[in-house]
Amino acid sequence: MLVESAHFRTTERPLCSTRLESQSYVLSIVSLPGQYAASASAPTNSIAIFDKATLRRVDSLPGHDVATTSLHAVQGIVGGGTTLMSSGRDGSVKIWDPRSRSHSIKMTNSSATRALLCCDVSNDANTIAAGTDMQGDDALIFYWDPRKPAAPLRTHSSTHSDDITTLAFARAPPPPGADAPRNTILSASSDGLVSTSNADEDDEDEAVCHVANWGCSVSQAGWIDTPGAAAGVWAASDMETFSTWSHELDPRQSLDIRSPVLHGRRTWVTDYLITCAPHVPHAPDTLGVFTGSNEGDIALLSSADLGSPTAPWHIHATWTTGHVGVVRALLWDHQVLLLFLVLRRPFMTDARPQNNVLVTGGEDAKLHVWPGLVPADDEMEVDGAAPRKRSLELEELEQEGKRARR
């Protein structure tokens, strides 16, 4: 069951937009200080850098040969600041130096090149993990010390038996009473397994902590560390099913994410899951689940009890008419305090800053920045004269942006 939130809000126009130069898909988006980075699919496989204030492209990195498969913003590896890390089907993980438009560190497995499908970095930035595709009967997890990039420190080959689609180090401490290693890593695979392992364990037979067999190809997974929700793991499958698990990977619920639908004064029907994010407004104590339609619309859903298959779901917001086709990438940028519209001219009636913006990219090669959600007592009216004024401001800004690009 899907219920409309008391503070439901719909947005039909992004704050600003741009597009990739070619007809590439936008595969992933990450936030850097003052900039967004977006990885593109073939034919370019590049990483584009955009100014947050205007979405003007300020740089482009070559990415990886064949395909760039994952993109992260990381801290503490190069000079202590924030930089980009990416993995690719060329068998490498790269740490990028935007000043030279090239990588400053390149981690590879010199003994045999394997396509890398995902990567992540530990909290102390001393361990980088990457998961491979399946070759023969093996799919591997490589672990590098970025200070010694020529070869992996260790390799785990028995965790999964098919393409490794997700790796994610635990960011929050384990729940009280949990016996978890310092560097716990979550992995998921097309073999249907969701696993947690000790990334510091050299003996791979001793590395795996917990394993769950979902019985379907897992496309995404992540940690649930929202303060109000029980700690655990979420996962999504290629068949648009969604599941939650305890920290020890005991099953909590599994459902078709397309089944919570809304009909009535408003209608929402989910076609696919985009991603999940914690700490979203109006759902601060649970996990925000972002879903999409085949027409390119986006909705934010949540469940008050991720462990109950009968708990109702709520729809908090929709963002519509921006994309055409499937939305591939989504970033909830809750650290943006002043967006370009506020810096240049206030569009809100009381001139307060806009924060919590949504950044999306899709198969239409478009990149959009949308107004996010604000606490209920700060929301502007969605009916009446104020939105009309805001619309006129947006139209003026779009025209100014077009003239600037010329």
UniProtKB/TrEMBL annotation:
Q: What InterPro entries does its record include?
A: WD40/YVTN_repeat-like_dom_sf, WD40_repeat_dom_sf, WD40_rpt, WDR89
> Domain of life here?
Eukaryota
**Classification via Pfam families:** WD40
Q: Where are the WD repeats?
A: 61-106
Q: Indicate whether Calcium appears among the record's keywords.
A: no
What are the start and end residues of every segment in region (Disordered)? 378-406
Q: Which UniProt keywords apply?
A: Repeat, WD repeat
Keyword Repeat listed? The answer is: yes
Protein name listed in UniProt: WD40 repeat-like protein
Which organism is the protein's source? Sphagnurus paluster
